[in-house]
Amino acid sequence: MALMRSWVESANFSTSDFPLNNLALGVFSVGEDEPRCGVAIGDKIVDVAALEEAGLMDLAGAPLFDVPFWNELMEAGPEVWAAFRARMTELLVEGAPEKAEVAPHLVAQAEAEMHLPFLVSEYTDFYAGRNHAVNVGTMFRGAANALPPNWLHLPIGYNGRASSVVVSGTEVRRPLGQLKPPQAERPYFGPCKRFDFELEMGAIVGQASDGPVSVGEADAMIFGYVLLNDWSARDIQAWEYQPLGPFQAKATATTISPWIVMAAALQPFRAVGPEREVELLPYLQEPGPMLYDIALEVALTPKGGAESVISRTNYREMYYSSAQQLAHHTSSGCPMNVGDLLGSGTISGPVRESRGSLLELSWGGKEPLELASGGVRNFLEDGDTLTLRGAARGAGYRIGFGECAGKVVAAMALPDWAK
After folding, report:
1. Which domains can be identified in the chain, with CATH numbers?
2. Strand pairing partners for 342?
3. Cα separation of 264 and 23, whole Å?
4. Residue 308: how many CB atoms within 10 A of its CB?
5. Residue 388 needs a FRET pair 20 to 30 A away by CA distance; which of 155, 172, 210, 260 works?
6. Which residues contact 135 (CB under 8 A, 6 or more apart)?
């Protein structure tokens, strides 16, 4: 697909994350105004709530955008999703007859504050990237037993905390928790010393279910995608996770990008999944390409220092797609809700420069990572800012997500009752 030209000139630049092909969805505010639904176009935001108020956006015979979240559009269903994209294209395409009516409702992105773009119903995180799973398994169990016996048969996951999901730009406080170094006789309570990021994509469920669905049906239920950083306290996790898996180590925060890229915008970038070493059971088999060719990178900026891009990889490295994850999630009869968020699992490539966490990049702290500013990292330090970026790249344009960033700040002081 070629670039679709808009009368908003900045949307036609090949470096923009937000051409007319994209129409990413966010929630923004300016000054003291209340948050509102908006669509990114170049370096601007179209105030969609204002368009609806002005009679320029009537899709369902009732207001959809009078609330500061996109869940109402999700609930309206795939036909309305398509009608929304078609109408936004009509209003923003080069030569649009209604340009003069739409132009007053543009806001500069630089002047806006971004908020969570949807109400997160529930959050599930997966462990579905093979390179990541092999790396972590090799560190802790040796190469011969790197993958658990079930890993090639199903997407492993755990239920996380929707209450901890935050939007890009939110500071992330170093967690406190119970820790037990290998040489210690007893655990102690204190700040995490091995705080980490995980590069992931998040899939947003846009249609509810009340029983098992196929992979194809699950794919149609996915409204869109965000970048996702699954912050992880590795030392807390090492002590707590047996036998039931992650709990407090993953509960501190999950940062998502402020812009939802609708699944429709990513259709030209479909990618075939990996060859299967073990044939999947029928309920997990894909009817077609289920992944996307989305280039991803992670940058680390220390306090007062220069940014270092520490990892580059691609979403097509995943072993299980979001559609397979969603289908598996429903297979027990588990109901899925509009606004459910599914974390893909860490997206690592086959070489060191493409690993999606510091645990892997520093190989458990044994191989410190060198930064552009001259420092090194085994794990994150206070003052570090982690920024995830991603885009699918077409001929002369890109479909981007904006930045997914968070700064690590010091742990809270231990209260007297915890000392």
Report:
1. 9-115 (2.30.30.230), 123-418 (3.90.850.10)
2. 124, 203
3. 10
4. 19
5. 155
6. 146, 348, 355, 360
**Amino acid identity at 162:** A
Q: What residues contact 330, with CB distance under 8 A and at least 6 apart? A: 209, 211, 212, 213, 218, 336
**295, 390 contact by CB (below 8 A):** yes
CA distance 65 to 95: 26
Q: What are phi and psi of 192, to 5 degrees?
A: -60, 135
Which residue shows structure tokens 């003052």? 383
Place of tokens 């630049």: 13
DSSP state of 340: -
Closest CA to 373 of 385, 355, 365: 385
Long-range CB contact pairs, 303-307, < 8 A, 24+: 303/382, 303/383, 303/384, 304/383, 305/371, 305/372, 305/373, 305/375, 306/371, 306/372, 306/373, 307/372, 307/387
From the centroid of its chain, how far is CA 157?
Answer: 16
Alpha-carbon distance 48 to 65, whole Å?
Answer: 7
Active site (catalytic) residues: 132
Residues of the chain with pLDDT under 70: none
- Scan for tokens 């210690």, then name that residue: 184
Q: How many CB atoms lie within 10 A of CB 87?
A: 15
- On the CB side of 121, CA atoms within 13 Å amount to 18
The pLDDT of residue 60:
84
pLDDT of residue 61: 86
Contacts of 65 (CB under 8 A, 6+ apart): 36, 37, 48, 49, 51, 52, 57, 72, 73
Please give the mean pLDDT across all residues of the chain.
Answer: 97
Number of helical H runs and strand E runs in the chain: 10, 27
The answer to whether the beta carbons of residues 361 and 311 sit under 8 Å apart is: yes
Please give the Cα distance from 286 to 279 (Å, whole number): 11
Query: What is the reported pLDDT for 419?
Result: 82
CA 275, 348, 294 angle in degrees (round to 5)?
80
